[in-house]
Design a protein that fits this description.
Layout: H1 2-20, H2 26-32, H3 37-65, H4 67-87, H5 91-119, H6 125-152, H7 155-174, H8 187-194, H9 197-226, H10 231-259, H11 262-278, H12 285-299, H13 303-316, H14 321-349, H15 353-372, E1 374-377, E2 380-383
Antiparallel strand pairs: 1-2
Length: 386
């Protein structure tokens, strides 16, 4: 089990690293390719758009072929697309490469997390998912650093390294015994599961922080650039933010195992409502960087409990775990696409505070509903939305 946790953690770390690599590069691409906030948002949203399109197909592959082949497919797509991204000099090619990266991420996450959950005891589910998420957040820590390194040196050389990393991980995955049995479940089982309150709530609690993160990743980076911060400074701000989130995620996973899935989520919703409303208040790069760190810490309390909740609900609905994490991918990608794409467009048409204010309002309304509408979830009474 320990070897499997290390393997899946390494896979999601590398995947997330090359997802997050674009943040400090956004100002450079905006200058060199003459991109506005909308075009920058589209570039940032191309990866989650690929995950959105690939979410259900990746879950079907994981259910029918098994978790391990799905992970191997994801690593292959990651290697090819990231290499293409490093050598691209046209925004259309960049968008396309990021889209394929997202397809690979859908496979890696659906296969990898299903592999973990199938092997882990149910009472440690939150902690195991939180550990993998902590590693993924470590990838988002390294991503901005890699992006800043690519800006300072050679994007071609830096992005070529993914072929070596993906190849090594694929070899390790091929040598690791698979778990669970492939199960060609009909799609009606998935449709029926999505109609249940616990699954819908869990998907929303994955989509909401992704929505907010998508906005902060685009608007925060561009605002810091507007205050005179270079790619290294932008990368440093998101590096610290991811470090804090990486500490938070395993902790809240354990708390959710012991005290219920929604206990840490409610605390995070309250904090996120405040910090999102205040992100545009700082007028210096340093203070804005601090605000980005605080926002990351608040939103980081959602992931592990919400994913464990969705896994619990899938098990109750007799839904294969690969399809359960396809729903995680679907929810995350929807939030990221809306946050990165629509957030940039709204900010360009009005002001940065408008989309961020909408995200803060969503957190506040969700918190209010979670406090007043109880429903039974995984055998325990929790306050959840209908």
């Amino acid at each position: 089990m320990r070897r499997l946790v290390l393997l899946v953690s390494a896979i999601v770390l590398v995947d997330t690293m090359f997802y997050a690599v674009v943040t400090p590069l956004l100002p450079t691409y905006a200058d060199e390719l003459d991109l506005g906030k909308t075009a920058s948002g589209i570039l940032a949203a191309a990866y989650p758009a690929g995950t959105l399109i690939g979410a259900i197909p990746a879950g079907i592959v994981a259910a029918r072929l098994g978790a391990k082949p799905t992970v191997l497919l994801g690593l292959a797509l990651l290697a090819v697309s990231t290499l293409t991204f490093g050598f691209a000099g046209d925004v259309v090619v960049l968008d396309g490469a990021r889209f394929v990266q997202g397809l690979g991420g859908a496979c890696s996450w659906a296969g990898g997390l299903a592999w973990l959950v199938e092997a882990a005891p149910p009472e440690t589910r939150g902690a195991v998912i939180g550990t993998a998420l902590g590693a993924a957040i470590g990838g988002s820590l390294l991503g901005p650093v890699v992006g800043a390194l690519a800006e300072a040196t050679s994007p071609e050389a830096v992005f070529s390294s993914v072929v070596v990393l993906a190849g090594g991980l694929a070899l390790a995955a091929a040598r690791t015994p698979g778990t669970g049995r492939p199960d060609a479940q009909p799609l009606r089982v998935l449709v029926d599961a999505v109609r249940t309150a616990p699954v819908l709530v869990a998907m929303w609690l994955v989509a909401l922080p992704a929505f907010a993160f998508g906005m902060v990743g685009v608007l925060g980076a561009l605002r810091m650039d507007g205050f005179g911060a270079g790619g290294a400074a932008v990368g440093a701000a998101f590096l610290v933010a991811a470090a804090v989130e990486g500490v938070v995620s395993p902790l809240v996973g354990r708390v959710s195992d012991r005290r219920g899935r929604l206990v840490p989520v409610r605390a995070g919703l309250a904090a996120a409502t405040v910090v999102l409303a205040l992100v545009t208040v700082p007028q210096t790069a340093l203070l804005l960087g601090i605000a980005i760190v605080a926002t990351s810490a608040a939103l980081g309390t959602f992931w592990a409990p919400a994913m464990a909740m969705l896994s619990d609900a899938a098990e109750s609905a007799r839904l294969q775990q690969g399809l359960a994490f396809a729903l995680v991918n679907l929810a995350w990608a929807t939030g990221q696409v809306a946050g990165s794409g629509l957030g940039g467009g709204l900010a360009e048409a009005s002001a940065d505070g408008v989309p961020l204010g909408i995200a803060a309002l969503c957190c506040a309304v969700t918190l209010a509903v979670l406090l007043v509408r109880p429903v039974r979830l995984g055998g325990e009474s929790q306050a959840v939305a209908p």
